[in-house]
Task: structure prediction
Amino acid sequence: MDRRSALKKTGLVAGAALALPTALSLLQACQNEKRPDWTPEFLSPGEAALVTALVDTILPRTETPGGLDVKADMFMDKVFARVYDPEAREALRKELAAFDARCVAGQGDVFAALGDTERASVLKAEEAAGGKFNPGVWGTAVGEQEPVSFYRNLKSMMIWAYFSSEEIGKNVLSYDPIPGAYQGCIPLSDVGNRWSL
Amino acid sequence: MANFNIDARQAMTYDAIVVGSGISGGWAAKELCEKGLKTLVLERGPIVEHMADYKTMNDDPWDMELREALTPEERRKHYKGIRSGFIGKSVEHFFANDAENPYTEVKPFLWIRGHQMGGRSLLWGKQTYRWSNLDFEANARDGHGVDWPIRYEDIEPWYTYVEKFAGISGEPLGLPQLPDSHFLPPMELNCVEKHVKSRIEGEFPGRHMIIGRVAHLTEPLNGRGKCQYRNRCSRGCPYGAYFSSNAVTLPAAQATGNLTIRPYSIVQSILYDEDKGLATGVRIIDAETGESMDYRARIVFCNASALSTTQILMNSKSNRFPEGMGNDSGELGHNLMDHTYRVGATARVPGFEDKYYSGRRPNGIYIPRYVNVDEGSRSRDFVRGFGFQGGGYRGGNPANISDFGAGFKEEILKPGPWEFFITGFAECLPYHENKVSLDTENTDKWGQPTLAIDCEFKENEKALNRQIRKDAVEMLEKAGLENVMGFDNEHEPGYGIHEMGTARMGRDPRTSVLNGTNQIHAVKNVFVTDGACMTSSSCVNPSLTYMALTARAADHAVSELNKFNI
Result:
């Protein structure tokens, strides 16, 4: 993203008509910029660039750390590599390719190579599609669950990776490993952010 | 705490053998040891010493390589149990290995087991309720199953006895259908739960919402610390704040000097002397070496968990008992029950945005049974009844919010909306055809027959579930909640993890396996005091009743030994 924005600003790229071979080299460039020392366990360089770009767009750095600051994309790759079954990995690969294909069809390039505005319109369309997660009771979802999109599943995983990271879990969310007591009704202002654990 | 005496090579003969070290086995060990009996506890799995073996007790999510996720190998190990939703990385080592301990689901049935010292007492939900005469008289009243040989009055002093030692927190209510325990102070309801309670109790006279009655200390007791509200119970509690064999009964048994606990000991069968008409001990297989050996004792307590106890009895064949020890009635293995599970409603709670709570309370609300408790509450659609567990909390799934970027990220760092759920637990009738049998075709890695489980909920349970869902939706709507969604996950039996029956107590040896003091009718020195002994299932959680029946039976056993009756 940054690379393309930079190119745009310098006038080297006009409009959205970007030749595909150029996109490939840009992907490498984006990935190198964001994650110079990262060799993913499962994701290909192109897939890693997509996941990294999604994390950066959905959970950007503000006054609080962003998803990339806490390596949410790297953790997700580790989960794909060590938690997913081979069939699930195969399906993931197809979904990631389909996601980028939608970006190319709609916006002219893969997600990682799009600018902020184009990324936003892609994610707005993704947000509008498919069902929402049903509530769960003690570890299992209840009720009739309508199908949830690949995008929302990936977003859910990304939020898990973010919240369960040490930096967010300890220093951003409200962290109290040994509360010592239960207080059932206190002002929210006494706590602030949501409980970490 | 002193190390456990695990050296069972010193002696092959004891006064008493206890098979299993879970909730009821721990109690049997404590009571028998304290009464002076040299007692051998046989545990199928490893020793889990309080504190020392709670290896994940302080882990934060980021301390685990994959946080709570399981690898494909770990999922294969728990390929059946995983569908419970309870097995994550921090607790998976306390759930039995399904691959090494197979069972056959003739009809779908989830069998959750804990193969280690303490068994499922490490993992249980800790909801703790007395049964009442509504339960003990139920079979006699409506004709399902056989009559219990005991009444509330028989077990009442034993409830008090075990409660004083286990430590039960809760609020007295004075309801005849849910007798009050000997209570430590109750845990606190949160603002939303108090609000919903007052609305439901106002709209539905006769219904009550209370804080759950739980086996958690809210005050220190006997050197154990009170609950620190970490809600990491199933990893083992370093404070000993909830009741487990590991933290409570087995250390008490150990303190007498009379306890030996032998780990990795799979009990293959109970040995029987035809001349005396009594058991003489048990045959075990060492799980690590495969070696078979016999231990002798004057009495045997069966506390391997409902289905495992029955499996052992079925495997204990002799000329006198060709169909399994104590199976003169043909009822051994039959009348398997569980509670129905995950039927209820969820909702959003409007308001209270500026309120929160602190502490992770390992407990929720409870709505005691209110149907079929008297003439006025009688249902024409079903017999027996149900209760609800549930609670209010700030939840919401951040992934459901249709937004992304800086604003989205700041929003999800804040607590989500208040939500509320209630989920019912219905009584299951004892049906002869709901049964387990020995599967000699499929043996386990020790060459032992496995169990085939053939059990299903029937029309009465389905009718109870329909009523649960309807009532749950109605209560949450009348309480003024929004987005009320009823649900019925239609879980098969086993999900309640309250499997019970298969060696029932009864008055008549022709129709039951055990007598009124949990002795096998025809083998009076064998006692069964785990879930196998249950004659009906009530709708409340059963563990407290197992504890009380065990203490009562141990008292009777020692009295009979002293009179030379067994």
User: Anything to note?
Assistant: Chain B touches chain A through 63 residues (CB under 8 Å). The two ends of chain B are 35 Å apart (CA to CA). The mean pLDDT of chain B is 97. Residues 240 and 247 of chain B are 5 Å apart (CA to CA).
